[in-house]
Amino acid sequence: MCEWCGCGQTDSHHDHGHDHSDTSKIIELNKSILEENNKIALTNKEHIEALGAVGINFISSPGSGKTTLLQETIKRLKPDNIKIGVIEGDIETQRDAQRIREQKVPVVQLTTGGACHLDARLVHKGIHQLEHQLEENGLNLLFIENVGNLVCPASFYLGEHKRVVLVSVPEGSDKPAKYPKAFIDADLFIISKIDLLDYFDFSIDEAKQEALKLNPNLDIICLSSVTGEGIDEWISYLKNLLHKN
Amino acid sequence: MHELSLAQALIDQVKALLKDYDAQKVIKVSVEIGPFSGIVVDSFEFSYYALIKEEPQFYGSKLEIITPPAFYQCPFCGRKFKEDELDRDKRCPFCKDSFLTPLGESDILLKTVEME
Fold first, then answer.
1. Residue B101: its pLDDT value, please?
2. Contact between B39 and B33 (Cβ < 8 Å)
3. Which of A116, A155, A179 sits opposite B37 (nearest CB)?
4. C-alpha span between B111 and B109 (Å, rounded)
5. Is residue B38 part of a domain?
6. In whole angstroms, what is the distance from residue B66 CA to residue B109 CA?
7. What is the share, in percent, of chain A residues with pLDDT greater than 70?
8. Which of B37, B38, B112 is facing A29, going by the closest CB pair?
9. Is the CB of residue A235 less than 8 Å from the CB of residue A72?
10. Is the pLDDT of residue A4 over 60?
């Protein structure tokens, strides 16, 4: 019997479109294709910890309010002397980094030049670049704003301590059901732009239920960066992470 | 299109294996793509065959993709179903409950490599 395809034919050299030559060998591996990425990600994690910080990977579609929420977050945490650094991932332009730079925090823009996600290797570079901008007193929180995309970034561990996935009200409450991977591996689900709930057919219950089905341990916060509703909860979530550290 | 990056990662991994095992040529690469991996199988396959055009050691190699199905478990009766076994509203056909838990891998695994 041909052991390779299990077809039951006794002649092991019949044609499968591939040869079983005597010199060939089959190696069993069973290991993740992302292993190389994950190895680098773990060194990123150590690097972030050596700087004294907690790393947060922000994932969402384009335009769901990641940068605006970051701007609000920086405003709220700065008076408490919490030191923030930001790594921005975009396909092109420095625009997001510019928005963060205006808040006077260290920021690095990674432009992927077409790639739809950040990977651990890019973030490794980003952390080194950011290091040069840090003052002697180090870093408490490192935000990594991923490329706007709810699909691809979900596959790449960057070395973060917490993964946050954002869905804004205009996008619709079916997003967790449609993009499961982003929610399965997340720690926190933020429903943003809740000031728009009256204008869109968005069901918070549906979004929550669908997300919890995929990941029962998911924390969920609903907020609006415009009205400030829910921002306190988000800020305490972050401060809690720092205490645990 | 993160499938292209993943196919490149696969090729890099197999190239390292060729070296480790002192082999010259890849015959067949077998990978398993989990149902919740968010990876489009056709795009991944397309990426693999596009990339190996630049890799003489991979010329003529075959990519086998195994795609195990997703299962959905009913929290009340504990039964597991494949997607097409659920009722029309995607509920448990026995309890009529819609709060089913999806079960399945979200990783992409390199299972075996045949080389010579």
1. 82
2. yes
3. A155
4. 6
5. yes
6. 10
7. 90
8. B112
9. no
10. no
Interface pTM, i.e. ipTM: 0.76
Q: What is the DSSP string of B5-64?
A: HHHHHHHHHHHHHHHHTT---EEEEEEEE-TTS---HHHHHHHHHHHGGG-GGGTT-EEE
Residue length, chain B?
116
Residue A125 · residue A110 · CB < 8 Å: yes
Question: How far is it, in rounded angstroms, from Cα A31 to Cα B111?
Answer: 7
* Structural domains of chain B, count: 1
Contact A88, A110 (CB under 8 A): yes
pLDDT surpasses 90 at A16: no
Pairing of strands A219-222, A188-192: parallel
Of B5, B102, B109, the CB nearest to A32: B109
- What fold does the segment set A35-244 form as a domain? Rossmann fold (3.40.50)
State pLDDT tens for residues A92-121. 888 888 888 898 899 999 888 777 889 999
* Chain B CA closest to residue A179: B38
Domain region containing B47? 2-67+106-115
pLDDT at A236: 97
Vertex A79 angle, CA A74 and A80, to 5°: 95
Q: Which chain B residues are closer than 8 Å to A91 by Cβ?
A: none
Contact B37 A181 (CB under 8 A): yes
Assigned domain for B77 exists: no
Question: What's the DSSP call for residue A231?
Answer: H
CATH of the domain at B36: 3.30.2320.50
Neighbours of B81 (CB within 10 A): 20
Residue the block writes with tokens 């059901």: A177
Count Cβ atoms within 10 A of the Cβ of residue A217 and give its class: 0-12 exposed, 13-18 middle, 19 or more buried.
Answer: exposed
B70: which DSSP letter? P
| pTM (predicted TM-score) | 0.82
- Tell me phi and psi for residue A72, to 5 degrees: -60, -45
* Residues belonging to chain A with any Cβ–Cβ distance to chain B shorter than 8 Å: 4, 17-19, 21, 23-37, 115-117, 119, 151-152, 154-156, 179-182, 184-185, 209, 213-214
